[in-house]
Amino acid sequence: MKRKIVHFLLLAALVAVSSLALADPPTRVGRMSVVEGQVTLDANGDEQTGNLLNWPVTTGNHVTTAPGARAEFRIGSSAVRVDGDSDVEIIALDEESMRLRLNYGTASVRIRDGQDLGGFDLTTPQARVVMTQPGTVRVDTERAPDTTVVSVLAGAAQVQSGNEMVTGGSGKRIEVRGDEFYTSLAVRDRFDDWVQTRDRREEGLPATRYIPTDVTGYEELDQYGSWADNNEYGALWTPRLVPVGWAPYRDGRWVWVDPWGWTWVDNSPWGYAPFHYGRWVVVNNRWCWAPGRWQGRPVWAPALVGWVGGANWSVTFGSRSGPGVGWYPLTPRDHFVPSYRVTTVYENRVAWRHRSDDRWQERWVDRNHDGRRDGVTVLPRDQFEHRRSISVANVPRGQVTPAQIRNVPQAPAPRPQITAPVRPGNVAGRPDWRERERENQQRDNRGVENRGDQWRDRIRADNQQQRNEQQREQRQERGAEQRFEQPRNVISTNPQAGMRQVPAPQPQQGILSTTPPPAARQQAEERDRMARQQTEERDRNTRQQAEERDRNARQAADRDRMARQQTEERDRNARQAADRDRMARQQADERNARQQAEERNARQQAEERNARQQQEMRNREEMQNRDRERREAQAREIREARDNRPPVQISQPRPEPQQAPRQAMPAPQPQQAHEQPQPRREERHERGGDRDDKRGRENSR
Question: Taken in order 137, 141, 143, 144, is the CA torsion positive or negative?
């Protein structure tokens, strides 16, 4: 039975050791996005300065700024801004946590995604800050001795110190001074304005429609490139303003970062996300970045490249030849092989994917062995023998043809020479990052309460030392008084002598007397007086310091009150100005509305007047036309009547033979006389009609 238990324990230990050895590196890494002034990045004991843009930020790093400098590093959609004369330490940064420590100075933290709140905290020597809502929190520590100030500019946060905790909402200021909490209104300064300006750049970015915000560096893509959809690769991003012959992983430098190894740092301001996530592909003779589709949170990689060459591949570099090492950007059809220890789960997560149908996968497999390697860059092999920064632009590149690239064998990532035995993932002579993380975890598990207890213990020790000094001085004073007292009779304790008084021995001649001389007594009194003066001086200094602290506290409270009053005054003035502007806008709107209504009425009246005039003119013309038609019809009827009238026949009476002939009466002429003036009346009517027509035309003009 005992043997089975022993076997079980050995098996469990073996599994634990194997799982620790196969532990995946962190899948989330930050990025140095802004460097203004003198900024130092302490990476595992190596201090990096100068151009730190796109430098990876991970567990154990320190970001230190000189006075007047500023820096920003980002983790996905979260941003940490550091003001001048500050030091921020990354305690732990992985997929589930982001733990920071502000040793001194000022830092502003912006968290947009609520999923990142659970693993975030920021500690200072006096307190621990936890955000409960997405927003922005500014933390100042050691600007005043043993003081931490937390300003909640947006969202909500909790501040813990010892066993106490205070929650603050937007616009609140929480000051931790010793064991005391002080709350007031937050006051902005130029650093907060700079932070707000940086935050405005991330509003409404088109990139968020194609990639998740967990891809660190996504905020730079829209400014330097354009997006498009492709049937085969999905979303594609194409950079703008790249030189002729440009290829990925060619304008930058290689740096050694534990535990991944050789890591690419690009020189372009957008060169972070496209070189640590996704793949590159040539479409229409242009390089395009294909981010693909992720399952879960994207996994960060040091460089998604394939390596070729090695010690047996001789390449010409300018005037000399030697072994060469080359690399090329991986396409969606290439498999990424990490040079560091990972599990199968990690390899599956870092693999590129866009579609899940079998036909596309089969086409992918068929093209995976065509030997095509676009954008190969070759450097001498000896450049990778040491763990130092390798600037590609400052090293002569090898000249190779596409046929040589096609035939060169695949190679693992180059490994630098190690001069001392180290554990996997370690730099020579440095502790493993996992051990450092465990030490930090153990240290942080003690909590901020221990740091508060240490601070209180230090105060107690100072008070105890002060009391010990006072007691020692009092004992010295009592000892001096006892030495200066006159000798008294001594009670003998000898049993044979019995209880009797024995006179004190008197000083004999030639023997030193125990009675102090006057000069010694004066010196002792002088020492006592000086001791009392020193004690009084210390007490007075202590009181002065306490009064000074109280005065400073009152002054700080007065400043806070004045700042609040100024803020309220500014807010009141702003509200009054807004009210005045609103009233002015309302008056202007009303005035414009009245003017527009008057203009509209005037236009309507003018249109109605014109319409009436036009209607009158049309009516007049119609009347004139009807009159003219009537007159023409009358004239036509008269003419027709005149033309169609039959001729008048005058009949002659038959003669009567039997009677004498009578004188014939003249033919009646009145009918002819009546017919003669008719044409003249018709002519007058026609002339009158012509005059009316002319008058009507003049009126119409």
Answer: positive
Q: How far does the chain reach from its first CA to its final CA, in angstroms?
A: 129
Which among 93, 97, 112, 100 is positioned nearest to 139, based on CA atoms?
A: 100
DSSP per residue over 148-171, as a string? EEEEEEEEEEEEEETTEEEEE-TT
Task: State both tokens at 303.
Answer: 């460089």
Alpha carbon 508 to chain centroid, angstroms: 94
What string of H, E and C letters represents the secondary structure of 548-572? HHHHHHHHHHHHHHHHHHHHHHHHH
Note the helical H segments in 429-517.
Answer: 433-445, 447-484
Whether the predicted pLDDT of 434 surpasses 50: no
pTM assigned to the model:
0.59
Helix (H, G, I), strand (E, B) or coil at 534: helix
Sequence ranges of the domains in the chain: 2-200, 206-414
CATH topology of domain 2-200: Jelly Rolls (2.60.120)
- Measured in residues, the chain has a length of 701
Phi-psi region of 120 (alpha: psi -120 to 50; beta: other; left: phi over 0): beta
**Alpha carbon distance 701, 697 (integer Å):** 6
Q: What are phi and psi of 280, to 5 degrees?
A: -115, 145
CA nearest neighbour of 152 among 172, 128, 122, 131: 172
Average pLDDT of the residues of the chain: 79
Cis amide leading into 259 (omega within 30): yes
Angstrom CA distances, 301 to 117, 215, 292, 296, 382, stand at 24, 11, 15, 15, 24
Angle made by CA atoms 358, 359, 360, in degrees to the nearest 5: 95
The tokens for 382 are 């000896």
Phi and psi at residue 594, in whole multiples of 5°?
Answer: -60, -45
Pairing of strands 377-380, 286-290: unpaired
Average pLDDT over residues 158-170: 92
* For residue 478, pLDDT beyond 50: yes
* Over residues 676-697, mean pLDDT: 54
- Largest Cα span, the chain: 239
Q: What is the tens place of the pLDDT at every residue in 226-270?
A: 999 998 899 999 999 899 889 999 999 999 999 999 999 999 999
Q: What is the mean pLDDT of residues 563-585?
A: 83
Element (H, E) at 71: strand 70-75
Contact (Cβ atoms closer than 8 angstroms) between residue 280 and residue 287: yes
Using N-to-C axis directions, what is the helix angle for 447-484 and 518-644, rounded to 10°?
Answer: 150
Question: Tens of pLDDT along 491-504?
Answer: 333 434 343 444 44
pLDDT tens-digit readout, 292-347:
988 888 999 999 999 998 778 888 887 788 889 999 999 998 989 998 999 999 98
Rounded Cα distance, 249 and 427, in Å: 25
| HEC per residue, 5-40 | HHHHHHHHHHHHHHHHHCCCCCCCCEEEEEEECCEE
Q: What pLDDT is stored for residue 170 in this prediction? A: 93
Residue matched to tokens 């046929």: 403
What is the pLDDT at residue 404? 79
Place of tokens 């000086």: 530
